[in-house]
Every structure is written in structure tokens, then in C-alpha cells.
């Protein structure tokens, strides 16, 4: 590192879905000669199957180095100790980097950890909040923070008017939080993202302007917002970062060969790819409905079922799959290289929980979706997928909160076979084109990243 290089310390919240986008943003900064140090927690690093080799990694502590959130027992215990120990160990790290001739200029932090702003201020550093969810969802939490709306809504049929949204949304479209003490704590954390946001220098959003124009324009009046997404590996978008094909940080080992070999033997646009991400846990009853819906759709399917979730599959489901069709009808794997799968020509649609990373990946690769949101921001993302961007359908739950097999079957057929599905597929292609353009040279996200870099460099030279 040359001494005149600006240096960003990246502080992610320690779950896979939050680390991946920050890691990709870091690669973009690095390609523009910004020095990067990424600082996950010791407990997160312990579980890593692979680590990025191109940037320096340092660890801070959340106070539970052996088992992280699980070791803490409750979310409140975890958040309280993380704030105390995290602030201390982050301060020590900043001091250590300064002493070794690599002083930090800016902390890019996940707003789930708002205490990072105070640490940055103590050291006279600039700070950037990096929101890993959609701007629409951030806007909802902002209005909960301001006391304008309440979560969860009191009546199921209530329409909610949110400033920055062109039309009202229904109760089933807002982020879900069941009323129990744990969930209340999580909601508190989500709302607290805005507690000191007026003190930061930049607010970075993992989205792109064309995707959420209206709500971004509205939020920009309050905060210095810059969209810098979609943060997925460059080889699937503008291809300007050489060899950037993977996130490079993973807690699961993908079954790459099995997935791709199987997909290579399937007809074009024929396969339903099913994945609920790294965190969602389905009830056994829902797993059974999903299994039957997939089988009854008569479509070939690739289904990611994490090993901890596999016992919930119907009895003998995997064995029967192998017997009936020589494994050709369906393949169940514990983890897969999602981007390579979504890019594959045999994929016809993506049955997804609508986590924001998965949604952005599907948009970037032009894959139509069957949305089956589970919790948190997913219902809002599903609403956008179906009604705003019109790139998918939503599989609705019944009064018991379960999506039935008939609904799953119907949604799959609609997207892959019917005329309405054709319109959805055309829209998906259009958004794919836009996603590539925004990160390419001169695109809206590319310009925002350039502006962020030039201000960082300017701040650095002013301090000399």
C-alpha cells in the first residue's frame, strides 16, 4: 500500500446475506485503488468454508467468539454485548492499523451496528452506512422510527399509506414481525438503523436508481443517499472486474459439479430452481406442500435444502425421486452456486423467499420469479417483484400461513407456460439489461461509486 491510498474499513453484520453485498462493493472500491480491510467477527470467520484472498481480513469480537448469536441465547444479550465488545475491539483495530502505517480514513458499516458511527467520530474518521436491503424497505423502517407507521399493522385488511410510495400497500406486504419478545428486539434493531444516521457522511444503498426511482427521490431529501447496486460479482454484469465470478466468502460448501452437470442435461428454460437462502426455516407441513407442488407441476426442479432442513422433507422423498426418473425429474442439494445456476439456460423460473440478495441476483440475470416470502423484508420485496417490476407472481398463503401445493403448481405453470408468463419473462429481460447498464461505465451506480471514491481521496489529501 502507498501512503497516499485512501483506506476503508468495512464492518459487516455477521450473516452471509449482509456480508456478500459489502464484499462486492469492496471489490469495486479496490479496483479503483482504495485500500480495503474487512472486519467480520471472530465467530463468523470460524465457520468460513472459503475466504477472499484479494483483501486484508481482520477480526473484531462480538463477545461470543465460540458461537456468535447462538451462544448468546437471546437476541437482546447478543446485541448488548456486541455493542460493548464490538466498540472496544473495533477501536483497538483502528489503533493497530494506524500504528502499522495503514491508518483508516473511512468506516463503511452495516446500520444494524449503529454504534460504529460513534467509534468513527472518536477517531475523526468519515463514515458511510451501507444498507443491504431495498430502499423501499429502508423507507418503511424509517417511518416506523419516526412513529408514522406501526409494525405489525393492527388489521389484516388495512391499507397503509407510506410517503414515497405511489400507492397504498396492504398489511401482507409490510415486513413481518410476529409479536414476541425476540422479534420485538429485532424490530428495534431495524428501526435503530436510523438513530444516528444524520451523523454519517454517506448513505449507500444496495439497489439501483432506475429500480426504485420514486422512493429514492423521496429518501434523498432526508439523507445523502447513493445507490451502488446491484452488488453481485462483476462477471454476471459489466465484466469489468477480472475473474470476479464468486462472492468468495461462504459458510456453506456448494455442490457445484452435481448442480451444473444435472442442469446441462435439462431442456432450455424448463427447470424450476428452488431456494430459500441461508437462514429461512420452513415448517415440515410447508415442506410437504412444496414437495408435492413441485412434483405435481410436472416440471424438472433443482431444490436447495440445507442439511439442517432435510429431516423435514416428506419420508422417502429423495429416494422416490431417484427411483421414478433416474434423478432426472428433480435434484435436491444441500447448497449450490446460485449465480451459476440462475445464469444457466435451462432455468425457467426461480421459486424464492425473496431475500434481497436473491431478488437482485434474479433481476440481474433476467430470471422470472415465483415469490414465496417467509419473514422480515421478504413480503415487501415480493410485492415489488409482482406489482411494481412485474417480473414474477406471488404464491399466497392460506389462513394457516401455509402455501398449498395447488397454489405452488399453478404459479409455476403460469410463469413457465402461460401468456402472462411470457410478459413476465419479457420484463425480466428488460430489467436484466438495466441492471448491467447501471454498473457499467457511466451508469447511475457506477457514477455514484466514482463520486464516493473521489470524495474519499479528497478527504484523505485534506488531512495530510
The CATH first-level class of the largest domain comes to: Alpha Beta
Helix/strand class: alpha/beta
Q: Compute the separation of the termini in Å.
A: 16 Å
Reported by name, the CATH topology of the largest domain is Rossmann fold
Please estimate the helix content: 40-55%
Give the overall silhouette: globular
| CATH homologous superfamily title of the largest domain | Glycogen Phosphorylase B
Mean pLDDT: 93
Given as residue ranges, the uncertain stretches (5+ residues, pLDDT < 50) are none
Give the second-level CATH assignment, the architecture of the largest domain.
Answer: 3-Layer(aba) Sandwich
* Largest pleated sheet: 7 strands, parallel
> β content, as a range?
5-15%
GO molecular function: quercetin 3-O-glucosyltransferase activity; quercetin 7-O-glucosyltransferase activity
Enzyme class: transferase
InterPro entries: UDP_glucos_trans (IPR002213), UDP_glycos_trans_CS (IPR035595)
Keywords: Glycosyltransferase, Transferase
Characterise this structure.
This protein has 464 residues and is an alpha/beta fold. It folds into two domains: 268 residues, Rossmann fold, CATH 3.40.50; 180 residues, Rossmann fold, CATH 3.40.50.2000. It contains 17 helices and 15 strands. It has a seven-stranded parallel sheet. A six-stranded parallel sheet has the order 12-11-10-13-14-15, with helices on both faces. It has a two-stranded antiparallel sheet with strand order 6-7. Helix 14 links the parallel strand 14 and strand 15. Helix 10 packs across helix 15 and helix 15 crosses helix 16. It starts with 6 loop residues before the first strand and ends with a helix. The model has no long low-confidence stretch (mean pLDDT 93).
Amino acid at each position: 500500500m502507498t501512503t497516499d491510498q485512501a483506506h476503508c474499513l468495512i464492518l459487516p453484520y455477521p450473516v452471509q446475506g449482509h456480508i456478500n453485498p459489502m464484499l462486492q462493493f469492496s471489490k469495486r472500491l479496490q479496483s479503483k485503488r482504495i485500500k480495503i480491510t474487512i472486519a467480520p467477527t471472530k465467530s463468523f470467520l470460524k465457520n468460513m468454508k472459503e475466504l477472499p484472498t484479494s483483501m486484508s481480513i481482520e477480526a473484531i469480537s462480538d463477545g461470543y467468539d465460540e458461537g456468535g448469536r447462538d451462544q448468546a441465547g437471546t437476541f437482546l444479550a447478543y446485541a448488548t454485548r456486541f455493542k460493548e465488545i464490538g466498540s472496544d475491539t473495533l477501536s483497538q483495530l483502528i489503533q493497530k492499523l494506524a500504528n502499522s502505517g495503514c491508518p483508516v480514513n473511512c468506516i463503511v458499516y452495516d446500520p444494524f451496528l449503529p454504534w460504529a458511527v460513534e467509534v468513527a467520530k472518536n477517531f475523526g474518521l468519515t463514515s458511510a452506512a451501507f444498507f443491504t436491503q431495498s430502499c423501499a424497505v429502508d423507507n418503511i423502517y424509517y417511518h416506523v422510527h419516526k412513529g408514522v407507521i406501526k409494525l405489525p399493522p393492527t388489521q389484516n385488511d388495512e391499507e397503509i399509506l407510506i410517503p414515497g410510495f405511489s400507492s397504498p400497500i396492504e398489511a401482507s406486504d409490510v415486513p413481518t414481525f410476529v409479536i414476541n419478545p425476540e422479534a420485538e428486539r429485532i424490530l428495534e434493531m431495524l428501526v435503530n438503523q436510523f438513530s444516528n444516521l444524520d451523523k454519517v457522511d454517506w448513505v449507500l444503498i444496495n439497489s439501483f436508481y432506475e429500480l426504485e426511482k420514486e422512493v429514492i427521490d423521496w429518501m434523498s431529501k432526508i439523507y445523502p443517499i447513493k445507490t451502488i447496486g446491484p452488488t453481485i460479482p462483476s462477471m454476471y454484469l459489466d465484466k469489468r472486474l477480472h475473474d470476479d465470478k464468486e462472492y468468495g466468502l461462504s459458510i456453506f460448501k456448494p455442490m457445484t459439479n452435481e448442480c451444473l452437470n444435472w442442469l446441462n442435461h435439462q431442456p432450455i428454460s424448463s427447470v424450476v430452481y428452488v431456494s430459500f437462502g441461508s437462514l429461512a426455516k420452513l415448517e415440515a407441513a410447508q415442506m410437504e406442500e412444496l414437495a408435492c407442488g413441485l412434483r405435481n407441476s410436472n416440471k424438472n426442479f433443482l431444490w436447495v435444502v440445507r442439511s439442517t432442513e432435510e429431516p423435514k422433507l416428506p419420508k422417502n422423498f429423495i429416494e422416490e425421486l431417484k427411483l421414478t426418473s433416474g434423478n432426472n425429474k428433480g435434484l435436491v442439494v444441500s447448497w449450490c452456486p446460485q449465480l451459476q445456476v440462475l445464469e444457466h439456460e435451462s432455468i425457467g423460473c426461480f421459486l424464492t423467499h425473496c431475500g434481497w440478495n436473491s431478488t437482485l441476483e434474479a433481476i440481474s440475470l433476467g430470471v422470472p420469479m415465483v415469490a414465496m416470502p417467509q419473514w422480515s423484508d421478504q413480503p415487501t420485496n415480493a410485492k415489488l417483484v409482482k406489482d411494481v417490476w412485474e417480473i414474477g407472481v406471488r404464491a399466497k398463503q392460506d389462513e394457516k400461513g401455509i402455501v398449498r401445493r395447488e397454489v405452488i403448481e399453478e404459479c409455476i405453470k403460469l410463469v413457465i407456460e402461460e401468456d402472462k408468463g411470457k410478459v413476465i419473462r419479457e420484463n425480466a429481460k428488460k430489467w436484466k439489461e438495466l441492471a448491467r447498464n447501471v454498473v457499467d461505465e457511466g451508469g447511475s451506480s457506477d457514477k455514484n461509486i466514482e463520486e464516493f471514491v473521489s470524495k474519499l481521496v479528497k478527504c484523505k489529501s485534506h488531512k495530510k
